[in-house]
């Protein structure tokens, strides 16, 4: 069956050859019909149409869609016309022995052919694009693009076909671009001129077309846009664009993660794959923020099975549902259980014999553990770690990875001190009998984790404020959950046993600045959503540290991982901690005294 579209394209190109060939002769003879060249016109047209069709097929001209005709199509067209020029030169080379071809025809014919064939394709694209926009400009939302570089140009072309958006102006801090036009849209000023440009055009939307923009640039644009009452969007990163996973016009609102300037993590997939592929893996706390992301990351490496251990029924259900929807090919085992339950842990390890264990189960909320729950923090964070770690050793697991925290450094709270003891327990087990390698990975706050400051601020903003910050000077290190999980896998793959890995958390962020940025991203000003300072909570300190005073770090092959050299574990710690745990429940003050005995740097905050 003949393809109607292909037939029409062939017919158009044949007509273009005929019109360009005749037109070249007419132009050559000052718009008069060249009566003396009938044979040349007739025979030449037949030869050139055959040559041109073959050339167009060779150049791939019919693979392109006219609705999206662009520079690659123009290059194919020029290659095809170049074959026609060779054919005309061959005809002219006969020098009158057969056909007499004026020399000027060699120049006029290809020029006319390019104009007709290229012009037809461009005209078709313009007509199709006009049909794709059934709404008038008045119905499209005006938007200003920040960034007149390559990404801005790509976005501008995409939005030109959008029925929803109309780009009214661009801004760029490169002074050489100001006043110039890009696809008919003028670069009207620098970033600082954004509020005035928004008012001039009545625009309420801004799109940041700077995939590699720094956090400072993002924060500046966010402030200017929100002060002008405009919503701010951004485009995908360069890595996503270049990989083809997303399109330039897949815009999304700017998120707080963008403003923190965290670079994407690159891990050594080969080493991680060698550690995980075909292995039985156990994740404790599998439904928590870090545990669930670890499970999602683990699924990429084709494990033999993933054992999901979780004390919360709902959290276990949610991670099970994720596997069913996104990774149904990965075998999973769903187990409800408490890491403090020795008999349950023994049963789990005996039945499933995990080869790699990621211990992410912990109590982590500082104020909750500080008052009334101190002994429960000890039981969960110390006894729970000890129970799982010994079960891993007895089952001859290859690796045990403890997820720790920056709050274990010079701790001022119960949660941090219990995590430091958990670290030391792993160090003792590493130096004891057995072949299991024990690793500790220590990092700070993760963005969006359950109960963390960002979800809290989001809820407070949604209710109209105020946003509560404990102290104007308090700061914290932040990292995205996927970034933390990937670095945990990288640390586990490179560890030889006994290391405390410290993740590069970047620069600390003031919590009050975080609050201000979140208020702006929500479309409010600080006059509309006020910030209220409530004072430091029990056990809370102004500054978090990733290394204790007595510690130093060593570099690793990965630029975002270092190894901490902590002070030696006190003699008798293992036996002493076991005896302490055996004493049973204790009051908060007794717990603090016990923690101080084993963690001398622990200084409880009054």
TrEMBL record:
Keyword Lipid metabolism tagged: no
Note the Pfam families from the entry.
CoA_binding_3, Polysacc_synt_2
Q: Which residues form the Polysaccharide biosynthesis protein CapD-like domain?
A: 281-564
Which Gene3D superfamilies does the entry mention?
Answer: NAD(P)-binding Rossmann-like Domain (3.40.50.720)
The alphabetical list of record keywords is: Membrane, Transmembrane, Transmembrane helix
Indicate the transmembrane segments per the record.
7-29, 41-59, 80-101
Q: Which domain of life is it from?
A: Bacteria
* Tagged with keyword Membrane: yes
Q: Which family does it belong to?
A: Belongs to the polysaccharide synthase family.
Spell out the PANTHER family in the cross-references.
POLYSACCHARIDE BIOSYNTHESIS PROTEIN EPSC-RELATED, UDP-N-ACETYLGLUCOSAMINE 4,6-DEHYDRATASE
Query: What is the protein name for this chain?
Result: Nucleoside-diphosphate sugar epimerase/dehydratase
Upper lineage: Bacteria, Pseudomonadati, Pseudomonadota, Betaproteobacteria, Burkholderiales
